[in-house]
Amino acid sequence: MSLDTLCKELRIGGVHSYIQENYPERPDIEEIFISALEAELEKRKVNRQMRALRQAGFPTMKRFEDLVGENLPEDGKHAVPGLRNLGFISERRNVILIGNAGTGKTHMAISTGVLACEAGYRVLFRTAAGLINEMIEARHENRLTLYLRQFKKIDLLILDELGYVSFDLAAAELLFQLLATRYETMSTIITSNLSFSEWVKVFHDPALTGAILDRITQNAIILNMNGKSYRREKKA
């Protein structure tokens, strides 16, 4: 990378001007500065990645490299390359992983989120129950609008374990409000143990359930993750 490019990247244009004015015949000086600035650029990149990973709120760090591919359901095996390249985020598509417990849904979701953080995307991980509790608390404290506004800055929201805990209708409406703000503008990954036909058990109201499904499934990547327990196979 040239000195000029590095200075622009680091927003220190004065350094480039100083070297050109004071050391026009000293290419060795320029090389020293290039090495130092490349190190600084890499350090800033790593710091941004670490900050993004902390702010994402992952319960644990997962990597695709830790997945044993042959233990995944077929849809999971085929989806890994596409998830790893993160193209669905730039395309503003959702990813929905549906299947029984232990088949690798959360592992795949977190692994995708970790890669997204490292690629410079803003990511947030929440369980469905945890997110609902945060929204209820924000509403009680009269800061729900402010709380929801932050999600407009989140490139990838990971909503884990939808279906493990049932909500009341008021909570379901809050979740609908959140998903509606992200509709066709940002990506969401959802993991669930329930088929779409069973989501009414969570949201109670058929019309509201239908409205949520209409929004999150449009142009979404939907993965059937039913199969043998990945965790049990891994331990065997």
Low-confidence stretches: none
Strand order of the largest sheet: 2-3-4-1-5
Give a short account of the largest sheet. 5 strands, parallel
How many beta-strand segments? 5
Structural class: alpha/beta
Helix run count: 12
Number of domains: 2
Quick check: average pLDDT? 88
Query: CATH H-level name of the largest domain... which superfamily?
Result: P-loop containing nucleotide triphosphate hydrolases
CATH architecture classification of the largest domain: 3-Layer(aba) Sandwich
Sequence of secondary-structure elements: HHHHHEHEHHEHEHHEH
- Bulk shape: elongated
Query: Approximately how much beta-strand content do the residues carry?
Result: 5-15%
Give a summary of the structure in a few sentences.
With 236 residues, this protein is of the alpha/beta class. The protein is 56% helix and 11% strand.
Overview of this structure, please?
- This protein has 236 residues and is α/β, with parallel strands linked by helices.
- The chain has two domains: 3-53, no CATH class; 64-235, Rossmann fold, CATH 3.40.50.300.
- The chain contains twelve helices and five strands.
- It has a five-stranded parallel β-sheet with strand order 2-3-4-1-5.
- Helix 9 links the parallel strand 3 and strand 4.
- Helix 1 (3-10) runs antiparallel to helix 2 (13-22) and helix 1 packs parallel to helix 3.
- The chain is elongated.
